[in-house]
Amino acid sequence: MTDRYFSDEPLEESPATLRGKEAHHLLHVMRAKVGTEIIVFDGRGGEWWAEVTKLSRTEVELALRKHRHVERELTVEFTLAVALPKGDRQRWLVEKAAELGVTRLVPLTTARSMASTAEPAAKLARYVIEASKQCGRNRLMEITKPQAWGELVSQDLGANKFVAHPGGVGVGELQRVINAATFLAIGPEGGFTDDEISLAREAGWQIVGLGTRILRIETAALALVAQLTA
Ligand code: SAM
Questions:
Q1: Closest C-alpha among 71, 91, 92, 93 to residue 80
Q2: Which pLDDT score, from 0 to 100, does residue 159 have?
Q3: Is the CB of 171 under 6 A from ligand 1?
């Protein structure tokens, strides 16, 4: 497969210029030369087949040869609201959520995770870009500002709202509207409180379970994203 690169500037006219990390990788890791062919995307949809036409120490000029309107998105908008784990586990979760096609990730704060553990926005954005380059997505997963559980459940979000909690019903027994936006919430290490689960139930969220074992945040999140989007 031709290597994929991300342009943080809109690809509107040819030639385009790659700078920063992407140019560094192309120049100093891949040792690109004039004539090297790549795929480049700007996260706004579609991708370009492009050819390197000029190189400097820090920048790469690209002739944009052919645009392809190819998207590799899910058929419905999928929002994952999750009390993020820390460090490498957070990175892993963000990358895998992007690979699985999650449209939007909401860092969640709950009674047992009052402070958001989200890493700086630029770092999170980089994880999303790396995952998108790898998996072929041409639209970037959005990462919103942290949101409190009470705020999220009080919104009118439509029919497909699921909160993962041990003891909930299996995915096969859930009531789902096909082709409707879907929301999935995953709690912190200490779990959701009884009050938080009651609040969700009253607001029409369905309580979904993953069997008898208690899973880490990221395991539960990715297992459910995969099952709900299958
Ligand atoms: N002691 C906590 C409890 O009982 O809720 C465990 C929390 S678990 C480490 C973190 C989150 O992952 C939970 O809040 C829930 O959203 C999800 N989770 C983990 N195991 C689950 C399971 N078997 N069924 C449903 N959700 C699960």
A1: 93
A2: 85
A3: no
